[in-house]
Write a structure and sequence with these properties.
CATH class: Alpha Beta
Helix content: 25-40%
Number of helices: 2
Distance between the termini: 25 Å
Shape: globular
CATH topology: Alpha-Beta Plaits
Radius of gyration: 14 Å
Oligomer: single chain
Number of strands: 5
Strand content: 25-35%
CATH superfamily: Cysteine protease Prp
Length: 109
């Protein structure tokens, strides 16, 4: 099971997202659920990295663990907000399709 937690601030802007675990939906290297979560998370990191007004920290210390954290200024707020919606909606879509293999919690601070 992949446990995913996204954290949104009081403005609804993405501040962090963490995915931990393995879906177990297929053999290593061919697991469609792991691939979907990985692609969404990695794409978010790439899209946000180097963007004006956004600072991203990410870590993947071991297989089955990926974490991103973002800070923003007024200049980066709209882009980060849109990227967060894209990420959380994409992850929610994976969860809807494969609820036995991943779970998403969205926490608001």
């Amino acid at each position: 099971m992949i446990e995913i937690e996204a954290v949104l601030d009081e403005n609804g802007v993405l501040r962090a997202c963490k995915a931990v675990g393995h879906a177990g939906a297929g053999p290593t290297g061919t697991d469609i659920v792991c691939a979907a979560v990985s692609v969404l998370m990695r794409t978010a990191v790439r899209a946000l990295s180097g963007r004006e007004g956004i600072t991203v920290r990410c870590d993947a210390p071991e297989p089955g663990f990926l974490f991103l954290e973002a800070d923003y200024t007024a200049e980066g707020r709209d882009f980060l907000s849109a990227a967060g919606v894209f990420l959380t909606e994409g992850l929610a879509s994976v969860v809807e399709e494969y609820p036995q293999h991943c779970r998403l919690t969205i926490r608001r601070t």
